[in-house]
Amino acid sequence: MMGTSCSLTVFRRGDEQYIGECFDILSQIEDRISAKRSESEIGRINAAAGEHAVKVSRETFLLVERALEIRDLTEGAFDPLVGRLTALWNIGSGDEKVPSPEEISLLVAAMKRAEVVLDEKNSTVFITERDAALDLGAIGKGYASDVLAAYLSESGVRKAIINLGGNVYAVGSKGRGKLWNVGLRSPEGDGIFTTVSVEEGAVVTSGAYERYFISDGVMYHHILDPESGYPVDLDLVSVSILSRDGTLADALSTAVFVLGRERGTALLKRLDVRAVLLTKEGEIIRL
Ligand code: AMP
Ligand code: MG
């Protein structure tokens, strides 16, 4: 699900009864927000870009609003309007090719011109440019983990681990003063390069190694610099964010990846958010 494999772990007998509902919730979220599905709410907003506003559910409306707030917070490093660019690159599809510089600059320009008009009262979203579109891929899994964590807590589940393709959310504390240890996957191979300890909450990782293709010896990965429209020039190879707010953690993992070591570290310090960064040289930075 959500373009990855997802797993849920509960620890108390009887709590497994909630797992089925969790997967139903995930599938509903995917049906609403996947940019790859033309019939999803995001798909319909994108299809109507430059033409008309689209009425969406309260949940989708609030998520788009939150995404735009985080765009401002990260000075545009996380930009949910990258949709036409991610569709053009189509990284991870299996038949990628490098787009022409003209195509890319046309879409970057449209993305810069575009505004997202939110009508709170009518719960509608309107993208003002035809060549701009929403892609919530950088925030969706963190958001989904928040929704599942809330559902499990409300159901009385005191301890659970949600893992949405490496976006981990520890629900409830481990107990007896113990912390959850989450391993961070090495960019190369199957092992981990370090672990982080959390009382509870999200540990969300972005890495270039997750999705990429190679053309003429050049690696093109899936995180785009909204300024250029090209995959970010690598200075960090893995970014993990720790926060009770999984939605924020997910967006920030992508944003810090784009910002790179210096600017990314400055942003995290300003926001007082914990993180583990792995540089290209293999240095581990803990904030
Ligand atoms: P993540 O794995 O959370 O870092 O999200 C990566 C996904 O977010 C990509 O596969 C794209 O769909 C989308 N994306 C790529 N670059 C950006 C960006 N600069 N801002 C927002 N979303 C992006
Ligand atoms: Mg992300």
Low-pLDDT segments? none
Strand order of the largest sheet: 1-5-6-9-12-13-14
Strand content: 15-25%
Seen as an oligomer or otherwise, the chain set is single chain
> What is the N-to-C order of secondary-structure elements (H for helix, E for strand)?
EHHEHHHEEHEEEEEEEEHEE
How many domain regions? 2
Mean pLDDT: 94
Fourth-level CATH superfamily of the largest domain: ApbE-like domains
Bound molecules: adenosine monophosphate, magnesium ion
CATH architecture of the largest domain: Roll
Helix/strand-derived category reads alpha+beta
Into which percent range does the helicity of residues fall?
25-40%
Radius of gyration: 19 Å
Tally of DSSP helical segments: 7
Distance between the termini: 31 Å
How would you describe the overall organization of this protein?
With 287 residues, the chain is an alpha+beta fold. The chain folds into two domains: 6-127, T-fold (Roll), CATH 3.10.520; 169-286, T-fold (Roll). Helix content is 34%, strand content 24%. The protein has seven helices and 14 strands. It has helices at 19-33, 41-47, 58-73, 83-89, 101-113, 140-154, 246-271; strands at 6-10, 54-55, 116-119, 124-127, 160-164, 167-171, 180-185, 192-198, 201-207, 212-215, 218-221, 236-243, 274-279, 284-286. The strands form four sheets. It has a seven-stranded antiparallel β-sheet, covered by helices on one side. Strands 2-4-3 form a three-stranded antiparallel β-sheet, with helices on one face. A two-stranded antiparallel ribbon has the order 7-8. A hairpin with a 6-residue loop joins strand 7 and strand 8. It is globular, with a radius of gyration of 19 Å. The mean pLDDT is 94. The chain binds adenosine monophosphate (AMP) and magnesium ion. Residues 78-80, 82, 86, 135, 137-138, 206, 210, 222-224, 226, 250, 253-254, 258 line the site of adenosine monophosphate.
